[in-house]
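User: Gram-positive cocci surface proteins LPxTG domain-containing protein. Structure?
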Amino acid sequence: TTTDKDGNTTTKDAKIVVNSNDKPVIEAQDQTYKVGDKIDPLKDVKGTDKEDGTTEVKVAKIIDQSGKELTEIPNDQAGEYTVTYTTTDKDGNTTTKDAKIVVNSNDKPVIEAQDQTYKVGDKIDPLKDVKGTDKEDGTTEVKVAKIVDQSGKELTEIPSDQPGEYTVTYTTTDKDGNTTTKQIIITIKNKDAAVAGQGSSNQSQATTTSTTAKHAGKGSSKTTSSQLPQTGEQRTVINTGIGATILLGVAAIFSKLRKKN
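Assistant: Predicted structure:
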């Protein structure tokens, strides 16, 4: 209101707006990358202010797991990095915010598979006890990529009726498209070979039995022989008999001579 010297008065309304002086806000979420990816710390990061609208956000600091300050996040090293963002509005109000950026390894998956052995006629399962694992994805599916026999011929499956060695190639792929292959040997043994082995064993047993029998025979022979005089004893008996005969002969001669006299 105002009044002049003549007493005229004028009034007028006006609005006084008191704006807030809130600090700007930074919108930033934790991020995850994999080794080899292009890393953008400012991806999807925004700064807003009630009075100014959008504000510019900058990376103020990057710290690695050991506490070392970096100028950028390396994309060839797995690890966890703390990024500090900052933004300032036109009133000079500054806001900071931390976010985590994780860089995961991008290793290829691993196939666990060992050589296998079967016998002719067995049910053959090339994927028996075969596993695929990945650091990021966990379990991965393993498939049989190729089967090759000893002659180099590619097969669709391993015949259970044919002995031989077969090379099996496995493959698995993780979610990042990393593919791993591994080869093993599956051996099919002939059952005849096993039977022949048993035959040898039986033959060995038969030989052992025969030998035992022979020894038993020898034992019986010894038992029989023990009932007769041994060689030395036989010689003694013979010598005794000869001596007795000679004595009898001499006695007979003397007897005749006496009669003549």
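The longest strand covers residues 94-104. Residues 51 and 95 are 15 Å apart (CA to CA).
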